[in-house]
Specification:
Blueprint lengths: L2 H18 L4 H19 L12 H13 L6 H10 L2 H11 L8 H24 L8 H5 L4 H22 L3 H18 L2 H20 L3 H21 L1 H11 L1 H6 L7 H18 L10 H11 L3 H6 L6 H26 L4 H14 L9 H16 L8
């Protein structure tokens, strides 16, 4: 088998298992590591001087977590956290060591992603029709993935497909259908973060691509999507509750023991996180003690449901601040900034930064493999890829 084809196959394996969230998804990324290690042995490694320095930042993020192990009291939990975040160390190294001439064309990778996303989206929609009772929504629909992660994967698909339509203009109808299916998935999965991130990248995409050429068209499209977003907020209960709960946050804090809705629970988790941060602002409490410290605040303030659910911070910025303090947050922000300053595939890189930066406002996405592996994989793929002349 041609070694470049084997390289592409290793990416396809991860994309397929990622979308379907199968029990073997962890093994799939393990297989990716094995194939890439084999290819590095056969093809040789990239000289250090040619490695994109932005690949060092994820490794630094992992190093900060290793250091926080030193002052963690719950060593078992800290070790588990390091296992979950291991991809921050391993994946950038794998991508950095790949020689330019041995890499698969970036356009081919994102095109493969959009095709697999299309197939996966159709499969999820068809699966819903076999569900007993009414058509499923939210977690029942997205199973075995959490809606936030399913929405994240399809939001990225919208960005990839839009870039392909913009520059390559190949497989036109495939990309259009893939985008439409992605919007359907986002609506049915009812992921608040997913829809907010999608709206954000649409506005950014229009500004970067169309606004300077046709301001009226850009404003009209943004206005249209604003109306659609408004309809979703009005007619979809989960989004309506998001707005009403947010604007009535004082009631949430006044009677925390009565709060059971997800937005209210997030507000309580954020408030508890800020209490911990005020006590440990510089280096945090350590990777292993975040849940323990939150449980103490939940108990003290009578946050019954967050305590029962053992809720994390539900915000990666706060999660990192609680665990690794301002030092950790600085490195986390560098990861997002790196995508904005990346010179290769600039527009894709910026769209991905917006998607991730928005999603981690509502979820501690780097606490689970579904978030960690996906982010580091796509980050490393974009940062290390060869510049394609037709992709901005």
């Amino acid at each position: 088998m041609n070694l470049k084809n084997l390289n592409l196959i290793s990416f396809l394996i991860y994309f397929i298992f990622m979308f379907f969230g199968l029990p073997y998804s962890v093994q799939a990324i393990g297989l990716f590591f094995l194939i890439q290690t084999f290819l590095l042995i056969k093809q040789g490694i990239n000289p250090l001087r040619k490695i994109n320095k932005l690949l060092i930042i994820p490794i630094l993020f992992y190093a900060i977590h290793i250091i926080s192990l030193i002052y963690s009291e719950n060593i078992a939990e800290a070790n588990f956290d390091l296992q979950v975040k291991f991809s921050f160390l391993a994946l950038p190294i794998i991508f950095a060591l790949k020689k330019e001439e041995d890499k698969t064309d970036f356009f081919k990778l994102i095109k493969s992603y959009t095709i697999i996303a299309l197939i996966a989206g159709i499969a999820y929609i068809i699966k819903g029709y076999f569900h007993a009772g009414s058509y499923p929504h939210y977690m029942v629909f997205s199973h075995p993935l959490h809606p936030s992660y399913l929405a994240l994967y399809f939001t990225v698909n919208i960005a990839f497909a839009a870039i392909i339509l913009l520059k390559k203009k190949e497989f036109l109808w495939v990309q259009i259908i893939s985008i439409l299916i992605s919007f359907s998935i986002l609506y049915i999965a009812e992921s608040k973060a997913g829809l907010i991130a999608t709206f954000a990248i649409i506005v950014f995409f229009l500004y970067k691509v169309i606004f300077h050429k046709n301001k009226k068209l850009s404003i009209s499209i943004i206005f249209l999507f604003t109306i659609i977003a408004g309809c979703i907020i009005i007619f979809v209960p989960r989004f309506k509750t998001l707005i009403t709960t947010t604007f009535n946050f004082e009631k949430v804090y006044a009677h925390p023991e009565k709060v059971v809705e997800s937005t209210g629970l997030r507000l309580l988790a954020w408030k508890a996180s800020l209490d911990i941060i005020r006590e440990n602002p510089i280096i945090g409490v350590g990777a292993g003690d975040i849940k323990d410290e939150l449980a103490i605040i939940y108990t003290k303030k009578n946050y019954k449901k967050p305590l029962e659910l053992k809720m994390n911070c539900h915000n990666q910025y706060l999660e990192t601040l609680v665990g690794q303090g301002i030092i950790g947050l600085t490195v986390l922000l560098l990861l997002i900034i790196a995508l904005f300053v990346n010179k290769n595939h600039k527009l894709i890189s910026q769209l991905f930064a917006i998607i991730i930066g928005t999603n981690i406002l509502f979820e501690s996405m780097f606490n689970v493999q579904a978030g960690v592996v996906f982010f580091v994989f796509i980050y490393s793929m974009i940062i290390s890829s060869k510049k394609h002349i037709l992709i901005p």
